[in-house]
Write a structure and sequence with these properties.
- This protein is an all-alpha fold.
- It contains ten helices and no strands.
- The protein has helices at about 1-30, 30-55, 60-85, 90-110, 120-135, 145-170, 175-195, 205-230, 235-255, 265-280.
- The model has no long low-confidence stretch (mean pLDDT about 85).
Amino acid sequence: MIYYGIVSAAVVMFSFMFLFTQRYEKESGNSIRATLIFSIFANIAGLIVLLIINKLQFQFTPFSALTALVQAIVLVSYYFCSIKSFNKINLSLYSVICMLGGMVLPFIAGIVFWNEELSIGKAICFAAIAISLFLTIKKDSAGSGWIYYIGVFFLNGLYGVISTFYSKGEYPKADTAGYSAQLALFTTVICSVLLLFTKGKNKKPTKKAVFYSSGYGLLSNIGNFLSLVGLSKLPATAQFPFVTGGTMIVSTIICFFTPNKPSKREIIAVALSFAGLIALVLL
C-alpha cells in the first residue's frame, strides 16, 4: 500500500499542474514559441530539483541516456500535437484523448510485454474510468485534425510505456532520480534547439511566466519521478488506471474552489472513477 501512497502524491501534483498551465497561457499565449519557452523553464526547474533529490549526482549509463533521449523526443512531439489539437477541439475532448492514451497503451503493454495479470479489479477499474472519461466530453467537441488527436493519444500513451520499459528493464541504469534528471536535461536541450529555428518575436518572458512554467515543471518532474518509483513495484495495469482516475477525482475537487465549477456529468464521472479505484485496490 505504501507505493499506492507514493503514486497518490504524484496524482495530486498532476492535478494541480493545469492551474499553472492556464495562468501561463493567459500571460504568454499558447503559440509554438511560447510553448517551447514554457517547456524550457519547466524542465530547468525540474532538473534542479531532481539533482537536489539525487544529492547533486548526475548518474549516467548508455541505457539510461538512450531511453531518456527517446522519451524526451516523444514528450516534445506530444507538446506539438497538443498545440495543434487545441486549435481544433475543446479542452474536454482533448483531456479525454490524452488521458485515455496515457491509460490504455501502458495497460495493454503491461499485459502483452510484461505478462501482468488481468484481475477482475483491474478490468472493472479500466472500464469504469474509460466510461467516466467519455462522460466528461462536451457537446461542442466536434472538429477536424484527427491526425493530431491520434498523435496526442499515442504519444502520451507511449510516454507511459517507455517509463514502464525503463522501470522494468534489467540493464545497467541510473536510479529513478538520475534518469528523471536526464529526461529533463534532454527535453530542455531539444526545446532550446527548436526555439532557435522557430519564427517569432524574441519577447522576453515575464517574471510571472517564468514562475508559472517553473511551478509546472516542479510538479510535473517530481510527479513523474514518484510515478517511476511506483512502477518499480506496481504493475502498469494497476498504476496507470490509478493515476488517470485519481487525477480526474482530484482535479474535479480542485474545480469546486475555482470559478469553473464541475457539472453534474463530471461529478457522476468522478463517482464512477472512484468506484473503479476501489475495485482496483480491493479486488
